[in-house]
Amino acid sequence: MIRLDKVTKLYRGGREALREVSLDIGPGEMIFLTGHSGAGKSTILKLLALVERPTHGQLLVDGRNIGRLPAREIPAYRRQIGMVFQDHKLLDGRSAFDNVALPLVIAGLTRREIEKRVRAALDQVGLLDKERQAPRTLSAGEQQRVGIARAVVARPRLLIADEPTGNLDAELSLEIMQLFRRFNDVGVTMVIATHDLVLAGRVGGRHVLLNHGQVQDGGAAPATPAQCSTGQA
Asked: CB atoms < 10 A from the CB of 135, how many?
């Protein structure tokens, strides 16, 4: 599904965030990007979301080089992706329902379809009874679950999350990760940046270790059953 082929990312002033990173992510995989602060975890997520573009190399999604995607096609591409952030990025002047509904409103869905999908997403994260509350009235864990509901309401094939449990205690962090696992179990590809190796280990999935902008371990996707039967890797 996703392939980074010798991707390098340089920022202004020549700072090198990624250096010739090669990484394969199969459809339906759950990937944890790990490594020290500044290792390049968030940069990979920004590239996948087309917030940034590679300086060199290719970033392929379903065989298409999205690093060269025309600007006019970026909104349609992003509608296939759910994004979860450490600081939630919720609109406090709107209810939990309206925050979750926002991607569907932008996409132009009917009010009836929006109501159906939003309530289903809130139900999945256990917040259907709080749909009319403002984010400021919710706990940190509940706010993060609203953010997750917003990320999945458009039924994305890919969900990316940047330190989604960084502001939560251990118990809430595990709840959030288990929620991600439930979405992964129904086929959503997950790419999660985290510094919490213990927590990631409790959930499962493949760990990709980054070190100073390079993949140190875990960059190759596991072989499929068909590849194993033919001796390919």
From this structure: 18
96, containing H or E segment = helix 96-107
CA 99 to chain centre: 18
B/e letters for 69-98, b = 16+ CB within 10 Å, e = fewer, are: beeeeeeeebeebbbbbbebebeeeebbbb
Q: Where are the beta strands (DSSP E) in 115-225?
A: 158-162, 189-193, 206-211, 214-217
Question: Helix 140-152 to helix 96-107 angle, to the nearest 10 degrees?
Answer: 20
For residue 153, give Cα distances in angstroms to 10, 25, 56, 127.
34, 23, 33, 13
Amino acid identity, residue 174?
Answer: L
Interatomic CA distance for residues 149 and 100, integer angstroms: 6
The one-letter amino acid at 172: L
Q: How many CB atoms lie within 10 A of CB 220?
A: 13
Task: Provide the residue-wise pLDDT of the chain in tens; the chain has 233 residues.
Answer: 899 999 999 998 889 999 999 999 999 999 999 999 999 999 999 999 999 999 999 999 999 999 999 999 999 999 899 999 888 789 999 999 999 999 999 999 999 999 999 999 999 999 999 999 999 999 999 999 999 999 999 999 999 999 999 888 899 899 999 999 999 999 999 999 998 889 988 998 999 999 999 999 886 665 554 443 334 43
